[in-house]
Amino acid sequence: MPGLEQIRAAFSGHEPELIERPTGRRAAVAVVLREHAGQPEVLLIERATKDGDPWSGHMAFPGGRVEAVDASIQIAAERETFEEVGVSLEGAELIGRLDDLQGRHAGRVDALVISGFVFHHPSPGELEPNYEVAETFWFPVRELREPERHIEKAFRETGSLQFPGIVVGDPERHIVWGLTYRFIEIFFEVVGHPLRDRWGELPMIERTP
Asked: Where are any strands of DSSP class E within the chain?
């Protein structure tokens, strides 16, 4: 698994596939990396449980909807990260941008477009999750590729359909799947270490980070 220098080099030559949409619903997430014991770790959050919230309890990157106050999509990712976990990305290094993703939802023609930005923060400090976040994780990037962590599972939102996931903690709670999984897949494709197990293209259910 490459270190930060190799990740920087890979993203320096990456041209992300962007979905241009002047109007419509957009969201942004921050893939925040730090270095620990010489290896990159990524920040993951478990969203808080909330009645009526279809994304309740999901594993995700910090992020959320782009608001009118945001000067750019990147600024939205930075603002949401600070609000959700107390990490300021103002002085962090922007390593690159991932391909935009589009959530699909039956009957909707204005599917949400989600953008992902990769940052390196040399000293993010203590995490301070707000009410939207149940738990936070600094997770070793290399362990996201370990085959024993990769599962295929039907989630409450998918009925009998099984989706790929990565277990990052409690196997009953902390499973990365859906759009967050796809962003991780794109990340590893960019750095030249694609995930070993891949289930191909699967129908995507819209998720708000």
From this structure: 26-36, 39-47, 59-60, 63-65, 93-97, 101-102, 113-120, 133-140, 150-154, 162-167, 175-177
In this structure, the strands spanning 162-167 and 175-177 are: antiparallel
- The domains found in the chain, sorted by start residue, are 4-146+179-190 (3.90.79.10)
What pLDDT, on the 0 to 100 scale, is given for residue 206?
Answer: 39
Q: What is the pLDDT of residue 201?
A: 42
SS3 content of the chain, % helix, strand, coil (to 5): 20, 30, 50
pTM of this structure: 0.89
How buried is 135 (Cβ within 10 angstroms: 0-12 exposed, 13-18 middle, 19+ buried)?
middle
Question: What is the spatial distance between Cα 94 and Cα 120, in angstroms, rounded to a whole number?
Answer: 7
